[in-house]
Design a protein that fits this description.
The chain has three domains: 12-125, Acyl-CoA dehydrogenase/oxidase, N-terminal domain (Butyryl-Coa Dehydrogenase, subunit A, domain 1, Orthogonal Bundle); 127-238, Butyryl-CoA Dehydrogenase, subunit A, domain 2 (Beta Barrel), CATH 2.40.110.10; 243-386, Up-down Bundle (Butyryl-CoA Dehydrogenase, subunit A, domain 3), CATH 1.20.140. It contains eleven helices and nine strands. It has helices at 12-40, 45-54, 72-83, 88-106, 109-121, 238-243, 246-274, 286-314, 320-345, 356-368, 373-386, and strands at 126-129, 145-149, 152-163, 170-176, 188-194, 199-204, 215-226, 276-277, 280-281. The mean pLDDT is 95.
Amino acid sequence: MIHQPTTTHWTAEDEATLLDTIDAWVERSVRPIAREYDQEDKYPHELVEEMKELGLFGATISPEYGGLGLSASTYAKIVTKVASAWMAPSGIFNSHLIMAAAIERCGTEAQKRRYLPRMATGELRGGLGLTEPNAGTDLQAIRTVAKRDGDHYVINGAKTWITNSLHGGGILLLVKTDPEAQPRHKGMSMFIAEKGEGFIVAKKMKKLGYRAIDTCELVFQDYRVPADCLLGGEEGRGFQHAVGGLELGRINIAARGAGIAEGALRMAVRYAQERKTFGKPICEHQAIQLKLGEMAARVEAAKLLVESAARAYDTGQRCDMEAGMAKYFATETGVFCAQEAMRIFGGYSYSTEYEIERFYRDAMLMCIGEGTNEMQRIIIAKQLVERNRI
């Protein structure tokens, strides 16, 4: 999908200063609380307030609407830095910004003026309501239905695995406005759905990893939403609106994978110098050196793929193949490095006193979310053939 190039007023010096600020914040506020909040599955309210002050909820929103107007490249670096300490908080502003990007890309001017300034400050925090119990990768299989009733739509259905749905104020909701349409995607629409009567948070889900973040099941029972909340003001465009944000979403997930990998490597390098066996630090044993060398190479490759995809996105190029490559490789690298670090830590890796076990638990989700890595490889192959027709 081709999109408008990213325009930014940020200089290289501005970016360096911003990234230094994020680094300091991560070390001061994120890393110290990660273990406690993860273990207790406790939402980091104070961290969210600090995110507001840093402008993270408006990171990629245009300055015209009160945001920072960061490029995908700069934003990906921020995500990597946060995820290298604790992956979960990056989801609070990442899902929110994908919603904001869709409104800015596809919404009417009135919708942009109404929602984006509130989203940029974090007053309104949201996410994406796509997945259903029987519809994940196959979005066209959704069953949530919206029926027109005067100047409102009445929505009934259910969503699952929705980030920011408990503590956020609303979501971008994918529905069927014409369940009989063929092909199916022509009957799909998206609504900017703020919480109200009939918008029910059914339960917060218990998860292996990615804890402390509100991932919930939602039920919509005769939920009424004003007709002017139909994204773009036109029915039948919901599928295009949803998939239009996948490139940026996958770049962000790739950045999280690279962050997990980098954080796991950092911990492994430190521990390998502290731990001694047979009279010397384990970093001097060749078996450990082989692991560290492989991890380091993969981390750098993952970061370069993320940067390449982000730069392509920023210049307005079609980058579904590049985003797919970055998402696939970086997230698999996150899993690989977390697992290798577990082996380097040995038996201590199974203790919650060491944070590497959290990285191991968090890593696998990145291979599944935002399009499975099996799907990424199919996308890569199809685009490879399409771009090299004989």
